[in-house]
């Protein structure tokens, strides 16, 4: 059994964040662990409140796990502020891990800031260089590069430029453009367009969290990056297709075993 760790924020409604990550790990047959960086009070309609966890407690959680348990892959999601980000970088340098998937979470679908504006530079400087793969959507790639992305060619240029910031590979997710959902993958040598039909479903809360956790799981299970991404996309597509009608807003995905 592979051991997966998510370092991310809690979503009490169970759709995104730590909860989505743990459900994905279980569904893909891995053992899930969690280091909580922030607690959010949220539901399918939006985020009501956020409390950030002190960096010393983030460190204590990471240390408690690594000094006792082998970690096969880490997924990093919501990291909130620059103090927490620097702590994560420091701790993961001390405790080496084979795969690090960085989902640069910034703003929720409902418009709530999950990354403090002051923390953007720290995220770029501290977390991108340790990433096996970084998985921004278009708005996140735009913030990272400070420019607009409106075409798939722009996405390719963005993938090449974000690669220069240090990650071993990058997946720019094209769900925010019109038409078929086209993602762009770049690993420093080949650039690939990965196309999948757009599914018109309302219940998509936690999609990004789920994709990055699935990629971390498949990497730990021994898949190379390209098959890990395509298997993860299949998993997310099925999970969106049978998303759950829970609550009054944007409901969660359905994690099948
Ligand atoms: N809440 C937390 C704690 C998250 O980590 C994320 C992840 O991106 C979200 C909310 C956003 O979820 P979504 O944008 O899918 O609603």
TrEMBL record:
Alphabetical list of Gene3D superfamilies matching this protein: 3.40.1190.20
Key words of the record: ATP-binding, Kinase, Nucleotide-binding, Thiamine biosynthesis, Transferase
InterPro entries this protein is in?
A: HMP/HMP-P_kinase_dom (IPR004399), PM/HMP-P_kinase-1 (IPR013749), Ribokinase-like (IPR029056)
Pfam families per record: Phos_pyr_kin
Domain Pyridoxamine kinase/Phosphomethylpyrimidine kinase stretches: 11-254
EC no. given is 2.7.1.49, 2.7.4.7
Q: Give the GO molecular function terms.
A: ATP binding; hydroxymethylpyrimidine kinase activity; phosphomethylpyrimidine kinase activity
| Involved pathway(s) | Cofactor biosynthesis; thiamine diphosphate biosynthesis; 4-amino-2-methyl-5-diphosphomethylpyrimidine from 5-amino-1-(5-phospho-D-ribosyl)imidazole: step 3/3; Cofactor biosynthesis; thiamine diphosphate biosynthesis; 4-amino-2-methyl-5-diphosphomethylpyrimidine from 5-amino-1-(5-phospho-D-ribosyl)imidazole: step 2/3
Enzyme class label: transferase
This entry carries the following GO cellular component terms, namely: cytosol
Q: Which reaction does it catalyse?
A: 4-amino-2-methyl-5-(phosphooxymethyl)pyrimidine + ATP = 4-amino-2-methyl-5-(diphosphooxymethyl)pyrimidine + ADP; 4-amino-5-hydroxymethyl-2-methylpyrimidine + ATP = 4-amino-2-methyl-5-(phosphooxymethyl)pyrimidine + ADP + H(+)
Instruction: Give yes or no: UniProt keyword Kinase.
Output: yes
Question: What does the record list as GO biological process?
Answer: thiamine biosynthetic process
Protein family (similarity comment): Belongs to the ThiD family.
Q: Identify this protein by name.
A: Hydroxymethylpyrimidine/phosphomethylpyrimidine kinase
């Amino acid at each position: 059994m592979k051991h997966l760790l998510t370092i991310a924020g809690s979503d009490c409604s169970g759709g995104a964040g730590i909860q989505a990550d743990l459900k994905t790990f279980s569904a893909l047959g891995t053992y899930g662990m969690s280091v909580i960086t922030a607690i959010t009070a949220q539901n399918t309609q939006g985020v009501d409140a956020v409390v950030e966890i002190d960096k010393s407690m983030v460190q204590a959680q990471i240390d408690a796990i690594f000094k006792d348990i082998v970690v096969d892959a880490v997924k990093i999601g919501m990291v909130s502020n620059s103090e927490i980000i620097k702590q994560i970088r420091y701790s993961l340098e001390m405790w080496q891990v084979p795969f690090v998937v960085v989902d640069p979470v910034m703003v929720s679908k409902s418009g709530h800031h999950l990354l403090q504006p002051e923390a953007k530079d720290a995220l770029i400087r501290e977390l991108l260089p340790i990433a096996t793969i970084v998985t921004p959507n278009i708005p996140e790639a735009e913030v990272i590069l400070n420019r607009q992305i409106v075409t798939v060619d722009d996405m390719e240029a963005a993938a090449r430029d974000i690669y220069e910031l240090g990650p071993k590979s990058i997946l720019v997710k094209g769900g925010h453009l019109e038409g078929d959902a086209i993602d762009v993958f770049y690993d420093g040598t080949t650039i690939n367009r990965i196309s999948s039909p757009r599914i018109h479903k309302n219940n998509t809360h936690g999609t990004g969290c789920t994709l990055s956790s699935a990629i971390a799981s498949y990497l730990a299970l021994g898949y190379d990056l390209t098959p890990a991404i395509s298997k993860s996309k299949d998993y997310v597509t099925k999970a969106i297709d049978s998303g759950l009608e829970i609550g009054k807003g944007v409901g969660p995905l359905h994690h099948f075993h």
